[in-house]
Design a protein that fits this description.
By secondary structure, this protein is mostly helical. The chain has twelve helices and no strands.
């Protein structure tokens, strides 16, 4: 008997999807608008995509945002992973409470306060050491600061659920601590590392408030440029750029889903082949040498 969902639940689901995705579809549709007015439909045209290629200011801001996001997320993943390892593997050490507070503080701190404090810090450093000058470097440092918190929380939760006995078994077989971590633990937490990198990349690419505080002359990110143009009205070339970003992100999501599904199918196939091979080898063995079914299962799945 088919399960029937309540009409109210279906209606709420449809409204939620409409609120999330209908504005995106409208934006993509108006990126092909021939009229220079965003709210007036003037027919289909790809002229704004052509003009986007020649808009040096917009392309420079998009390139700067990508450079900042890639650099900040990569550094944040390295530092956040090390912080997560310290918090999980070392139960007691001096300064643990301070490290935990410093890691989780950016998660609950308002961005206005974070941006103000970092601006005061950079100004003080510039007056004292004549470094750093506000621009690309200060934006990257500011983004690393709040991205580390998300990386640490994500990797820490995965490390706490990882089986420590596998790494200990590798060390018993002669592997050093570094090799055991790189070959055993790192592949186990790699999904958390990848997801934290993607989350940091998205947060850095989308940030406006903190970047507005710590930026300097000649360093304008894409959100800052779009926000400054919104005051005078959104131009259709921004719709074209947003549509391209949506297309790229959507393609990456579809590709990632396809790769994950393919990997899962391959893992299931290898598991079935291993079980069939083990059953055939047990069936070919003499009856006196065959282990009981419970012992054979314990050998396949040790506790």
């Amino acid at each position: 008997m088919e399960e029937r969902y309540p009409p109210l639940l279906v209606s709420v689901l449809c409204i939620g999807f409409a609120v999330l995705y209908l504005p995106i579809l409208v934006l993509i549709a108006y990126s092909f608008n021939a009229s220079p007015l965003v709210s007036v439909w003037g027919g289909l045209s790809t002229a704004w995509y052509v003009k986007l290629v020649h808009n040096r200011e917009l392309l420079a801001a998009a390139l700067l945002s990508l450079e900042v996001a890639v650099t900040a997320s990569t550094v944040a993943v390295v530092l956040g992973t090390l912080a997560a390892i310290a918090l999980v593997r070392f139960a007691r050490f001096r300064g643990r409470l301070l490290l935990t507070g410093m890691v989780t503080a950016p998660l609950v701190m308002p961005e206005v306060i974070t941006g103000t404090t970092q601006l005061l810090l950079f100004v003080s450093l510039l007056q004292t050491f004549s470094w750093p000058h506000r621009g690309f470097l200060t934006i990257v440092l500011a983004h690393i600061t709040f991205c580390i918190a998300y990386v640490t929380v994500t990797v820490q939760s995965r490390l706490q659920g990882a089986d420590r006995s596998l790494e200990e078994a590798a060390q018993d077989l002669g592997a050093g601590p570094a090799r055991a971590f790189l070959e055993i633990t790192l592949p186990l937490i790699s999904p958390a590392i990848v997801s934290s990198w993607l989350l940091s990349f998205t947060l850095s690419l989308d940030d406006l408030v903190i970047s507005s505080f710590v930026t300097g002359p000649g360093a304008t990110t894409l959100p800052m440029l779009i926000y400054s143009k919104v005051k005078l009205g959104v131009s259709p070339d921004i719709n074209a750029l947003a549509s391209l970003i949506i297309g790229i992100v959507g393609s990456c999501v579809v590709l990632a889903g396809w790769l994950m599904r393919r990997t899962e199918q391959r893992r299931e196939l290898e598991t079935r082949m291993a079980e069939q091979s083990e059953e055939s080898s047990l069936g070919a063995a003499p009856a006196a040498l065959r282990p009981p079914r419970a012992e054979a299962r314990a050998l396949r799945f040790p506790s």
